[in-house]
Every structure is written in C-alpha cells, then in structure tokens.
Amino acid sequence: MNEFTSVLPELIKNITTGMPHFLPEIVLIITFIVVILTDLFYPGKKSVHTYILVLTGIVISAFFTILQYQSSVNGISVFNDTLKIDRIGIIFKLLFSAVVILYALFIKGNTRMQNHTKGIGDLYMLLPGALLGLNLMAMASSLLMVYLSIEMVSLVSYLMVGYVSDGEKQSEAAMKYALFGGVCSAIMLYGMSLLYAFTGTLSLSDPQFMIRLAEMPQSVAAIAIILVLVGIGFKLAFVPLHFWSPDVYEGAPIPVTAFLSTGPKMAGFAVLIRFMEPFHTASNTSQGTPVFDFVAILSVIAISSMIVGNFAAIWQNNMKRMLAYSSIGHTGLILMAIIVNSNDGIKAMLFYLMMYSIANMAAFMIAGKIEERTGIINISSYKGLGKVYPLEMVCFVIILMSLTGLPPLAGFMGKVLIFSAAIESYSASNSLWMLSLLIVAALTTVVSLFYYFKIPLNAFLRQSDEVFIVKVKRDALSYISLILTLLLILWGIMPGLLI
Amino acid sequence: MIPLAHFMLISAALFCIGLYAVLSKRNAIMILIGIEFMLNAAILNFVAFGKYDKLHMGGQLFALFAIVLAAAAVAVSLAIILNVYTYYKNIDPTVIDQLRD
Amino acid sequence: MSLLSILIFLPLFAGLIIVVLPSSVREGYKYVALAAVIIQVLISAYIYLHFNGNVFTGIADQNKYQLVERLPWISLNLGAMGKLQIDYFLGLDGLSMPFMLLTSVVMLVALLASWEIKINLKGYFALFLLLDTAILGVFSALDFFLFYIFYELMLMPLYFLIGIWGGVRREYAAIKFFLYTLFGSVFMLLVIIGLYFSVTDPATGYHTFNMLSMMDPKNYVEGSIFSALAHNELFGVSARLLGFIVLFIAFAIKVPIVPLHTWLPDAHVEAPTPVSIILAGILLKVGGYGILRVCVSIFPDAAIQSAWWLGLIGIVSIIYGALNALAQTDLKRLVAYSSISHMGFVLLGIASITPEGISGAMMQMISHGFLSSMLFFLVGIIYSRVHDREIPHFRGLALIMPKFSAFIMIAFFASLGLPGFSAFIAEAFSLIGAFNSESINGLLPRWMAVCGTLGILLSACYFLWTLQRMFFGETRLFGGEKWKIQLTDVNAREVTALCILTAFALVLGIMPSLAFDKMNASVLELIRLVNLK
Amino acid sequence: MPLLTFFINVFVPGKFTRSGFCAIASIAISLLCSLLIFIAMWNQPFIHVQTNWFTIGSWSLNVGILLNNLSVLMLPLVSGIALLVHIYSTKYMQGDPYLHRYWAYLGLFCFSMLGLVIADNLLLIYICWELVGFSSYLLIGFWFTRNAAVQANKKAFIMNRLGDIGFLTGIMILFSQFQTLDVISLFGEKGLVGNAIVTGGVWTSGLHHMPAGWLTFAGLAFFLGAVAKSAQFPLHTWLPDAMEGPTSVSSLIHAATMVAAGVFLLARIYPLFNDTVLIVIAATGAFTAFMAGTIALTQNDIKRILAFSTISQLGFMILAMGVGASASSLFHLGTHAFFKCLLFLGAGAIIHEMAHLKEKTGLDYDPQDIRNMGGLRKYMPVTFVTMAIASLALIAIPLTSGYLSKDAILIESFEWAEGKGGWYRLVPYSAMITSWLTAFYISRLIFKVFFGKFRLKEKVGLHHVHEAPPAMKYVLVVLSLFCLFPVFSLNPFMFEDAWVIQGFPQADNMTRINAFHTVVPAAVNLISVFLIYLCFLWYGSNKPAPDFSKNGLFKFSQQQWFFDKAYNTVFVAGVLSFSRFLYQFDLIIVDGIVNLFGTIGRGFARISDWFDRNIIDGLVNLIGYLAGKLGKLIRKFQTGRLQQYLVTMLLIILTLFIYKYYTAAI
C-alpha cells in the first residue's frame, strides 16, 4: 500500500493536467446529463428542447475539439497513457461530431421516428453518449479504454436499434446485434486478458508491451491478437464478422442504419490504427521478425470483405441490405489503406472515410425519405421514381457514383488516394498481397457499379406501372442531402480544400 | 499459492463452456449466460495476472470495469430479448430468422 | 482562360443554363444547345485555321502545343509520397486538333438529329452538353489525371442517354456498355497511378501526372515500377509491357477490338440516333486517340514489342467485323459491325508505326467519324418514320425516297472506300503503311496488309447487298400502304445535317492535305519518339 | 497550251449535267481537245506535269498528268466513242424518266475514264479505276427496279472489287519497294523497276529489298486487277450479266472503253512483269478467248452474244500482252473499240425497234432474242450494212481494221510460240481456232437477224419495223467508217505499217518469221470465209435451219449434205455441244463457284455471327453469371440464424489460428 501512496499524488496530478485536454468529452458528459434531466422535466412529444440541447452540446464539443487541433501536433498522452490526443484522433472526432449532427438532423426530419409512440427524447439522449464513446475510441491508447469505448458504443447502438421496436424484424435485429456483439466483446475481452497476461501492461504505448509480446511464442501471441481483432472487427463488420450487419441494417430504422454504417465503423478504424501502432513502431525500430504479420491477415480479410460485400450485394433487393453489403465492400477497400500503413495511407483513409460517411448518410437520407413517403423499400419498386422526385433521385445517383468511385466526385479522389498509397507501398515492398489487393479492388469496383446502378436503372430507365399519388414536397432532408451531394462534387474537383 | 497455470486452465475452460453454450443453446437467455461465462473467464485472467501489475492495478481495474459493463450489457440484452418475446412468443434464435438473404 | 477552356466549358455552361431554365420554355432547350454547339463549331474552326501543323508538332514538347494552358489544380501534400501535383493542363497538337473539329461537327449533327427526342428534354440536353464537354476535354487534356477524369465523365451521360432514351433493350445495352468501359478504365487508373510514382517533373522534382513528362525516359525515377531500366516484372511479364497492355485494353474496349466489342452492337442498336452518332462518330475515336497519345507515346518500347499482336487484332477485327455485318438483318446492327471492321484499319495502321500507317489511321478515324455519323443518321431517319429497321422489311425504297436513297448511296459508297471520299485515302494508307512496315521496321509481316485488303472487298459485299435488298427493286414494304405514307423523303433539317457530313467526307477525300498538313509533323514526331525508345 | 484547256475540259463532263445537250457539248469539247493533243503529241517526247496533292509524313504524293503515245492514243479513242454514244443515246434513251441521272452517270464515267488514261500516278490510276467501276455500277443498275439489273450491278462491282484488291496489293508492294507511285519514275526509261535486280531470291532496289516472290506476286496482283476489269477467266461472269444496263451503256463501257482499261493498265506497268507472270497472262488470255468464243456459239440473246464476243476479244488483247506484243494489243484495243461499239449500237437499234414493236402489238416476247428476228435486212438497211462491216472487221476479213490488228496478234503469238516451243504452241493455235469460232458466231448472228424471214411474221406485220432514227443511224455510219483499214493503215495487209503499231516500241524478243505473215492470215481468212458461207447456209435461209433434220435444208447437193452431215455429227455438233457444255460450265461451275464463294462468305458470316452472339457475348455473360453465382453462394451463408453465423465465424477464425500456428512454427 505504501508504494501506492507514493505514486498517488503523481497520479492525481496526471489526471488534473489531463482534464483540459478532455474538455470536449466533458462537455459531452454534461450535455448527456442535462439532456436526461431536460427530457425528464419537459417530456414534450417532439422533444424539441432535447433536440436543441443535444445539437448545442455537440457543436460546443466540436468547437473545443477544433481548438485542440493546434496544440496537438505531436500527440499528447493523458490519464496515464489511457488516452492519446493527436491530429488523427482529432480529425476522427470531428468526423464523428459531423456524423452525429447529421444523424440528429436525420432523426428530426424523419416523420416516422418523430411520430413514434414512445417519443423521441430518449433517442436524442443517446446521441451525446454515442459521441462520447466514439470520441473515446478515437483516442483510446490502452486496452482498457479500447474495451470500454467499444462497449459504450455497442450499448448505445443496441439501444438505438431496439429503441423504436415497432415490428418483429426490428426486435429480431436488435437481438441479433446484441447477442452477436456480446459474443464478440467477450472474445475480445478474453484476448485482451491474454495480452495482459503476456505483457503485464494495459497501455499500448508502453514499450514493455511490445518487448514482452515479442518474447512470447509467435503462435500464442497471434491467438491473443486475433481474438482482440474479433472485437474490433465486429465494429468494422469485415469478413468473417460481417454476418450481423445485413440483418441489423435491414431491421433497424433507417436513421439508425445510417448511423451504424458510418459512426461506429469509422471508430473501428480509429481503434484499429491505435491497436496496430505499437506493432509498427516496433517493426520499424527492431530488426527481428515482426511480432505479428498484420499485412497478411488483414489482406486476406480485406480481399474477402471486398469480394463478399460486393458480390453479395448484386442480388439484394432491399435498399438497406444492399447498402449494408456495399459497406462491407468499402470496409475492405479502406482496410487497404490501413495495410499500407503509412502517413499517406491514413490520410487517404481519412479522406475516403469522410466521403464514405457523407455519401452513406445522404444515401440513407434519401432512401429514408422515399420509404417514408411511398413506403418503398425494395430497389425494384423504385421504378419511375426519377420523375416523381427528380431532385432527390439526381442527388442519389451522384451519391452512388461517388460510392462507386467515378470522377469527378469525392469518391473517385478517395479511391485514387488509396490506390496511390497502395501502389506506392507496392513499389517499395513488391508485396504480392498489395498487388492482389489492388486487382481485387479494381475488379470489385466494376462489380459495385452493377448493383449501385440498379437504382438509377429503376428510377430513370424504367417506367412505373402504377401512378404515384404522393405529394411531392421538398423538406429539410432534401436540401441537406443536396448540400451533401454538392460537397461530394466540390471535394471531387477540389480535394485540396480538405487535405 | 495456486499456480498461475491453474487460473489459466480454469479460465480457458470457462471460456469454452461459455462458447459451447452460446453455440448450442436454443434459448436466447442461455446464450446470454454463455456470454457471461466467457466474460468471466476473461475477468478471471485479468485478476489473476493483476498480481504482476501491482503498481497500476491494471488487471483489477479492468475486471471492475468489465463487470460493470457486462451487467449493463446484460440489462440491455434482456430488455431486447423481452421485446423479441412480445413479438415472437419465442426466444429460440434458430426460429427467429426473418432477416435473412 | 484560354480559348480551349472556353471551348470545353461552353457546353457545360449551356447545360447548366438548361438545367435552371423553367420547364415552361422546354421548347427553347434545343435552341440553347444549338447555339452552344454552333459557337463551338466556330471556335474550333477558328482554331483549325490558326493551327500551324509544322510549328505545333506537340507529342513530347510542351512548347510545341497550341493554346497551352497550365494551371496548378490539385496540390496535396502527402508527406512521404511527396506532393500530389495535378495540373489543369490543356493543349492541342496535330494528333488532337483534328478531333476537336470532328467532335464539334459531329456534335452539331447529333444535335440536329436530336430534334426527334420528345420526352424529358431538360435532362436530355443537359446530359448531351455534359457529354460534349467531357469529350472535348479528353481530346485536349495533357495531364493524365485530367484526361482520366474527362474520360470517365463521358460514361455517366452516355449511360443515361442510352438508358433513358434508348430502344427496347436499352437497360441491358446501357449497363453492358458501362461495365465494359469501367472494367477497362479501373485498371487504367492503377497504371496511371503507377506511372505517377515512376515519373518526376524535371522542373520541380515532384512526381507528376504530366503526360509529356511520362514520354521522356529521363524523367523516370530509378528503380520505379515503370522505369525502362529497372526491368521490373509482374506475373513474369515486364511491367512496362503489362502497363501497356492494360492501357491498351482500356482503350481497345472503346475502339473496339474483337473480342472486346460486344458492347458496341448492343449499345449502338439500342441508343437513340443522336447517341449512336456520337458513339460511332466520336467515342470510338477516343479509343484510337488514346492508343496514340497514351499507349504508344508513353510505352514506345512495349508498343514495338506488341505491334505484331496489335496488327493481328486489327486484321481480325477488320474481317470479323465485316463478316458479322454481312450476317445482320438489322440495318443499325449492320452499320455497327461495319464500324468494328473500319476501326480495325485504325489499329492496323497504328501497329505499323510508319508515317503512312499512322496518318492513315488518323485519317480513317476522322473519316469514319463523319461517315458513320452519316450512316447512323440515315438509319435513324428510317427508324423515326416507321420504327422498324429490319432489312427484309423494306424493298425498293429508292422509288419512294429518292433523295434519301441518294444520300444512303453516298454514305455506303464512301464507307466502302470509293475514291473521292475520305475513307479511301484512309484505308489505302493504313494498308500501305502496314505493308511498308516490314521493309521499314519489320514490325508487321506483309501478309497482314494483304489480308486487310479483304476487308475492303467484304465491305463492298455487305453494303451493296443491303443496297440491293432495301433500296432497289419494286417497292414492297412490310407495313404496306401505311408505311408508304409514313416514309416521307428527307426534310430540310436532315438534308442540312447530311450535306455537312457529305461535304466533309468529300472535301477530305479530294483534298486530304487539309487534314494531313495539320498532323504530318506530329505524326513524324511521334514516330521519332517511338524509334528513339 | 492545249494541255491547260484540256485539263479544264476534262472536268466538264464530271459535272452533273441535266440535259443531254450539255453532256454532248462537253464531251465534244473534250474530243476536240483530245484530237488537238493527239496531233500535237503523237510520237513526240512525253509530257509530264505534276503538282503536289498531299503530304503524308515526310512523303509527298505528287500527281499530275502524263501524256505519252499510249495516253494520247487513248484520249481521242475514248472521247470519240463517248461522243458518238452520247449522240446515239439522245434518241435511244428518249423518254426515260430518270434521264438526267443517265447523263450524269455518263459524265462521271467519261471523266474517270479520261482521268484513268492520263493519270501519271498509280494511286491516281487506282482512283479513276474505281470510279470507272463505280459509274459502271450505276449505269448497269440504271433501271434499278429490275431485279436482274440490281443483281448484275452488285456482282459487277464486287467482282471488280476483287480486282481492286489485287491492284491495291500491287500498289502496296511497289510503294513499299520503291517509295514512289509515279509511273514515269517507276516504269519509264531507266525507271526504278527496270533498275531493281533480283539476286539470290532477293528483290533489291536501292536500300529496300524483299523476297523475290513478291515481284511475281506484284505482277499477279496487278494482273488480277486487269482480269476483273477486263472480264477474263475466271472473273468474267459479270460482263454478260452487265448487259442488263441500257445498250448504249453496254457499247460504251462494256465493249469499247472500260473493259479495255485492264489492257491499258497492263500496258502501263508492262516492265514490272517477269516471265512467270507473262505466261500466266498469255495463258489466261488464250483460254478466255477460246472459252468465250465457244460459248458465244449457242447464245440466243443478241447482247449476250456480243458480250461473250467482247470477252473473247479482250482475251486476245490480254494474250497479246502476255506474248509481248503490247503494240498489237493496243492496236487491237483501238480497232475493237470501234467495231464492237458499232455492233452494240446496231444491236441497240434493233432491240429498240423490236421493243417498239412489242409495245405496239402487245405481244409478249423477248426483244433481245435473235430467234425472234430475221429478215430485217430489208427494213433496216443502214443498220444491216454497218453491222455487216463491223462483223467483217470482227472476223478479220482483209480490208477491215480488224484484219490488221487481229492478224498482228496472231502472227506475233505464233512467233512467240515458235521461240518457246513445246506446249506454248497451244496458245496461238487456240487463238486461231477462236478466230474461226468468231467468224461462225458473228455470222450466225448477222444471218439470223437480217436474213431469212421475220420469225414473228405470222403474228404481226413487219411494216412497223423501220430504220433507226437519224441520230442513231449516222452514228452507226461514222463508226463503220472507222472499221475500215485506211483509218489505221494505208496498207491493208501489212499490220506493221499501221501507225499505231509504229507508235510503240516493238517487241524485239521474237524473230520475225515471214512464213507466218502469209500463212496465218490466209488460213484464218479462208476458213473464216468458209464458215461464213456455212452459216449462211444454215441460218441465212428462209427455213428453220438450225434444225439439222433432212427436210429442213436447201436443195443443195446431197453429197455435200452427207459431207455436211458427217461434218455435223463429228465436228459441228461436237463444237456446239462443247459450246453448250462450256456455257453450262460457265453458268454452273464458274458462276457457281462465284456464288459458292458468296454463299460461303454468307455462311462464314452466319457462323461468325453465331460465334459473336453465343461464344464471345456468351463468355461475357458467363463472367456475369459466375459473378452472380458467387454472390448467391455468399448469400447462402446469410441464413438469418444467429448461431450459424457464430459457428461460421468461429470456424473461419479457427482456420486463421491454424494457419497462423503453422506459419509461425515454420
């Protein structure tokens, strides 16, 4: 106990000095509490107060995050190495804030959610919590924080999926999600416990972590690492941990699906980068064989993700399911950037993620709007919608083009950047994995065109048998998705604005 | 003094039992229990190896957090399973397969 | 803002005007488009007149391009990768200048053919003008990245133009076209990026997408993938050869070559007339232009290595396309297959790497641009009258549509290489070049050229047979008297368009120097570059 | 100076004129210029004027006009005959609704034919060559509603295209070897072709060389062009079919001028040919001449007889080229142009009348069938006389132009064969036999048409038939004047005195054998006269002579009859049946082969179409299908059952473990 008291003041000092860097998250925590209270006292059906409060909170937190950007060039570790604040993390955090804001706007604009019997306040309440979890994921630099933040996001997501339970499918989706997530997090926890057992430390940035791990037999270390990857992979939904995603995406309400396909997925990448960081610094400094060959295993995963996601998407008729599979494919593509593992790779990945999240959000917004107005959820029923919703469908097509990666849209720039990083890495290493990744990526791009273009095919090329008698009204969501689309075009032509 | 290997063996056994329950049981609650087994296996590991990490108490700390989170997760899961039951009148995951390709 | 930029973005601007115009003036859309295209024709005519073929030899020297415009566009600092520097880099030389004029004229004709479009005018003309911009951009871009963007930008409008305003199987045709082309271009993108990392700009030292820098072996980074000295291998094939093949396939799909051609008959048949005109008149040339500008110029060593195969593919395309044309009963399909056959001459000419061959290939592209446009226009006229183009359903059209028949005879005979029309000079010199190749550089065996002449014979067969079946003899129509009334002769608008095309084909046939003078120096420069290796 | 005016004037007929007058005027000016040039240029050093047409790469194509004896001879010939045919046509084509098109096509033809004659560059010759073919296509198919006409013009054009391929190949070879297409520099004195040497199987010229086989190949290729254009075996079948066009066109294009272009081409590029090619040329010519002559024996359509006769005469010219007698060949070309044109025009006049008759009486018969004619001598005397003169010229009776030229060919070929010996003698003998056949078939035609009784007499009165209108009549007369010897030579018996022959370099590779100069013409003429007489007996009588039954003949000597009978059974019947056989052969085998190629081509087309649709497109679809299958396979795993997901997932992870374990162990 004595030993402990001697370090105690230092620990406390550590915590207090870390507090300023934690400001955005503190704001979020406060917002969270305030929102709970507000919702308790002003339960109005539309929960306008909570909505405004949540938005304000997130904006303030984002503002603080921006302030951090200047001061964090080299990265600051706080709270005893549990959190690390650096530029990548901050960019991720900003992205999360943007996604959550869009998500909030989406919920606000979605009448089905708005009219739900339980009221919408609880859902708003979850937003700061979700953002907090995401932010922590982006900053986590110890196993504890990784687990904690992942679980936090997971719990919030389970609730979101199950929240508006107005049907069998939705409850089923929630159950699958929760149980699948439970198993994965248990496996990850077990992996972490093994890692802890091998190294005796939880901090990823602790040099001891790598030294001890390198002393272990490779196969044993590999088992632990793979077990941890399972947990991260659950968030990313890469193969073979993708099974939940189509079912859950289909079952969940559209705004939630939009969120699931963007927020947690991006956070998963953030965590993966964090988790891999020590391995790379180790392999860069020491001469010996790498502790764990991420390149091979991630390449296999990326290739199979691209194949599974894109090929399975061909046959989907449900809009959400199709986007679910396509997002599995995108995961594979983004993994490429991680495998490259250079600064450029990460930059490329960030750009791609940004494009991807905006495009996905916008796509779901439009799909949601159409589902809400016409009740159409199947792609084959989109026939003739191009005439009914010209603005929306044109935006939709542009978004899908961007997802396919056609110039001059942001998706194309993203692909170019990722390919550049991969080719650069290939020319340095001549690794066969890189080459096959490139080829599969190129091939699946062609395949992706096939299913993405089913939507314009139906919307514009085919005539509808029935006459739509819905009232065409453009609302906020239409304009938001228009703005997002314009952003995609702008960044496609002028990517320099971003990087 | 119980050797570390024993802790590891027990935790591995717990993990496997949990996994088996998860894979074989025809009841969502039983799956949940299986998950708990697996979590506890990990927690056991943490606590056991926490002995080498006296300074930071990392293992114990982690165990505490894990227990709390596990509880939260179980609560959420139970609520969701309950919800499923109201629609399906059944919680056998092999029957609940409306969402599929 | 140079004249070239104005030329390129003028249609886009007009397209935007059409988008924002209210739909109450929907009849005015086509006039806006027409105004834009006419201005475009005037500008390109101005450029043509001020183009000095001997000064602007182009190819690998920026100073020898006309109307060069080079602005930094995308500049990304990418840490270890250096700076991603993409320029907005345009210019014209003897290889691209003829195509600018061709594009403008064919666009004008296509627009005249668009009068038949009745539904969704706003979307149609907006996409049409977007396509126009993309094509002009492809022909003038000198930065590979910019080139690629314009190249891909062509796909989207085409997909919709075929898909929305096309025939019965338009969905299939549109997606097939799109998938084929995308398949080629995705891999092209990989090679482009590979080239980017292999080449540095001598001025700045950064990697560059500048095509002109890529043509100079000195600019290649030592040991990079596509460096000629490094002799890198991928899958046991030299990396440069592989890069060449990938780029070649990407462009060859456009050309198209056998066996990558099956999108073409479908796309042509299902596309509405103006789009068929654009497809045949311009888009196929993008492929040929790409092979010259990119494949041959950047990978001259690989081009020489694979010339034999290129020639063989050319021959196979010539004969195979012609045989298929012979078997068609759909007039539009026949014309489509004849395009494949005619574009085979282009490939043959290019493969020879002789001045005659390449000039012949260029000429063939230009002449085919005018003639195939004319053919599709003519087919479109029949189709718009009775919505049928099965050859056996018509007979003796010459009696009821004399003017139309006169035009179709001109078009047919010009296409089958009657002297006096541009196609003759083009085909003759493609073949002469190919034949000469063995004496000059030993790339193509002589029998290839001799086989190529078979194509001339076969083209006479299918065109004359069609002429005999459809136009001569006593009038007998599938649709009876009703058709006889519907099949009115060509009207003034159609005559205008057809006369423009006939005039071009004829003038180029009688005075080929009008085209040759502009491109000779560039062609020689290109050959010098290739032989320099 | 005449050059300049001439150059301008050549282009006048090219302009599409709407009325016949305009066309006639322009062609007359052309004729005038041609004559002036002819007078100015004959036997003078050649004139060669060039201008740059276009530059391709660093190589410039200069084109211009070349006037040497060959071209200045052809100029007045072509324009003269063209003028006469133009005049004739004003009457013949009167009343046709598409008359202006007719004049336009004729104008185009005259332009390209004159261009062909004076072009100094192989490419330019090729261009005109194709244009000539094209205008012939247009004219054959002038009555485009007739199915046969359209079939015929397609066939003509495609067969000519086949020849063009040969021509183009030849051009490619020469260009590749010599880097120029200029006729003078290639084939002139000290031309490149002459200087090129063949050593050790390599054909070398300057820096360029290629295997010697290509020299022969080039010769054959050019010859293929000539074969198609001049309707030689086996590409001759288009010519009889081409008779579907108006008769005036047949006379101008398919008898006098265009078909001679092949011979002209051979003359232009004569230095290129080596021995092998020359033998092929001679053999082809001889065989074609013989074959066509035989076929002509049994034809009944007046135009077809003349068409086969044309083929046969062209065969003579080609044969002459082959044996090296290019001067005689061209001489024959000139004489033949006139008398064959005359024959056609005469036939045209007859057909014209017959068609009128048909219209008036409303009877249904073929106005071109000679079996329906007879005794027209009394009603159309001018036509009769002129045609008779032309026939005599064709038979090569002394005092006619044909005698001079044909004997020149025969004699020279005998001399040639004598020099070679052996099987080569077959060539002149077959030529001789052919000239006898000529005598027979042409006199059959004349007698059948003009002698005897009108065979439709029972049904109609002949008073409707009268002489051709003046425009046609005078043309015939003028032409017949040109069939007589003085126009070409003052000495009616010695062909060597003819100015045409003297205008060209003499072939010096054969020794003059005096015996032939007397024996051959004598033999030819004597037997010819006999044959004419025989014909007159058979066909000139009033009785239905071709029926060789006993009661069907004149009361001439029985004995002679026996002789005749023997002769008949052995010889005539043999020849006739051989002729029929050949015609059938021509119709079935040669034409059949042509059609077979067509069918095979179409068959190939179908096969490749099938291949395209099923194999290539099928492959594409197969890839799509496989992609779809893969997608479906992946979907199979998405069962919707949670625990199955988990099992799959864990199995995959286990596989990864095992993989890792082993790779780590190694």
Question: How would you describe this structure to a colleague?
Answer:
The complex is a heterotetramer of chains A (499), B (101), C (533) and D (666). Chain B has helices at 4-24, 28-49, 58-88. By secondary structure, chain B is an all-alpha fold. In chain B, helix 1 (4-24) packs antiparallel against helix 2 (28-49) and helix 2 runs antiparallel to helix 3. Chain C has one domain (3-532). In chain D, helix 3 (69-92) packs parallel to helix 15 (326-361), helix 3 (69-92) runs antiparallel to helix 19 (470-481) and helix 15 (326-361) packs antiparallel against helix 16. The longest helix of chain D has 79 residues, at 558-636. Chain D is globular. Chain D contains 23 helices and 5 strands. Helices cover 69% and strands 5% of the residues of chain D. Chains in contact: A-B, A-C, A-D, B-D, C-D. The interface between C and D is large, with 62 and 54 residues. Chain A: It is found in: Cell membrane; Endomembrane system; Membrane. Chain A: Its EC number is 7.1.1.-.
Biggest interface pair, residues each? Answer: C-D, 62 and 54 residues
Number of strands of chain D: 5
Q: What's the domain count of chain C?
A: 1
Major beta sheet, strand line-up of chain C: 1-2
Derived structural class of chain D? mainly alpha
Mean of all residue-level pLDDT scores of chain D = 73
Assembly state of the chains shown: heterotetramer
Radius of gyration of chain D over alpha carbons? 31 Å
The neighbouring-strand order within the major sheet of chain D is: 3-4-5
- Strand percentage of chain D lies at under 5%
Order of SSEs of chain C: HHEEHHHHHHEEHHHHHHHHHHHHHH
* Total count of helical runs of at least 4 residues of chain C: 22
State the shape of chain C: globular
- Shape call of chain D: globular
Outline the biggest β-sheet of chain C. 2 strands, antiparallel
Structural class of chain C: mainly alpha
Roughly how much helix do the residues of chain D carry, as a percent range?
55-70%
